[in-house]
Amino acid sequence: MILSRKATSTIPEYIVKRLKNLQMDIITSIVTQSEISTQLSPISTATNFSKNLQEMAKYYFDQGGKLFRPTITLLMSDACSQITKPHYIGDDLIDLNQYRIAMVSEMIHTASLVHDDVIDESGTRRGAPTVNARWGNRQAVLVGDFILARATKVLCSIGEPPVISTMAEIVEDLVQGELMQLTVPPELEPVQRFQHYMAKTFYKTASLFANSCKSVAMLAGCDEKLQKDAFEYGRHLGLAFQLVDDMLDYVATSEILGKPAAADLKLGLATCPVLYAAHDYPELNQLINRRFKKDGDVEKALKIVIGSRGLEQTKELAKEHCYAAASLAEKLPSKDSSRDCLIDYALSQLSRDR
Q: What domain of life does the UniProt record list for this protein's source (predicted)?
């Protein structure tokens, strides 16, 4: 039973090896000169600018990361490929195009971090200066665009229009989600505001998981039902991931998070714990509508949320999505630990502390 399951699965060694190579392969795709650049003189200002841009673009990749999104993508690739390749004997079934999807998922995610740091005026990430803190906002916007451009080149090399279209949906959704986060209509009723928040969360976070999982299922040759199940797994996992993130913003220390505690409130964002708390403490609605701009708003909202059922209710909602994702993964008729890892990654969101 999923509810009583203990996380005992191990990521297949061939996926571990893929993940070790992925960061360097991304950096290689970023620093590789374009054909036009190689034709320019070594002293060309355009060439020098390109090199500077590449150096900035690989800044976050050089720092390393959890690689959570490509890990999920490769596990789903393996699980789906086992279904469509009946002569499976325990070898690495992940093909080059599925690996490219994993690369693209991390590149899109990192580009979004660069852009988010500009929008949020963040000075640090993971304990280090942000791109915008080191090189300025204008440069950072271009860096994010450059990473997306290189991700597009990797994506186009797949040569499968339906898959390319599915992955392109992620970028469109990211923009939509960011706009929804920045512009919450103040006239929304509490129920509508919560629906707005959940839609924003899908677009800004869960879409990347969902469409990456669907894309590798498509490349594996899975039927439409399995493609939909892969999408839904990613959707539920992504929603759970963000709900836990929103909860940690209130309960984890800034040292653990790698960003200031209560950062969302300071940015004027009403996330799930606040919205739930507002059901029991309607005085929060006024603070939400003015985006916690007045002196003392952040402190007042933080105190109310901590003393409310908001965090508990957020965890319960995250649990629903974790179990939904795990149930979908459990249905996959795979033959090794990749399926079990997908289940464990879904359930482990509830015990995450960063």
A: Eukaryota
pLDDT band at 336 (very low <50, low <70, confident <90, very high): confident
Which long-range CB contacts under 8 A does 143-149 form with residues at least 24 apart?
Answer: 143/53, 143/56, 143/57, 143/59, 143/114, 144/111, 144/112, 144/114, 144/115, 144/118, 145/111, 146/30, 146/53, 146/54, 146/57, 147/30, 147/57, 147/107, 147/110, 147/111, 147/114, 148/107, 148/108, 148/111
Q: Which two tokens stand for residue 275?
A: 């919205």
- The pLDDT tens digits for 276-291 are 999 999 999 999 999 9
Q: How far is CA 74 from CA 22, 129, 212, 352, in A?
A: 11, 30, 10, 21
Which residues lie across from 124 on neighbouring strands?
Answer: 129
The predicted model scores a pTM of: 0.91
Q: Does residue 57 fall inside a structural domain?
A: yes
CATH code of the domain in which 252 resides: 1.10.600.10
Dihedral sign, Cα of residue 163, residue 164, residue 167, residue 170: negative
Domain that holds residue 82: 13-348
Of 325, 321, 241, give the one whose Cα is nearest residue 68: 241
H helix intervals, 183-223: 190-201, 207-219
- The band of 226, judged by pLDDT with boundaries at 50, 70 and 90, is very high
The domain total for the chain is: 1
Q: CA 275 to CA 220: how far, in whole Å?
A: 40
Instruction: For residue 99, give the nearest of 172, 209, 25 by alpha carbon.
Output: 25
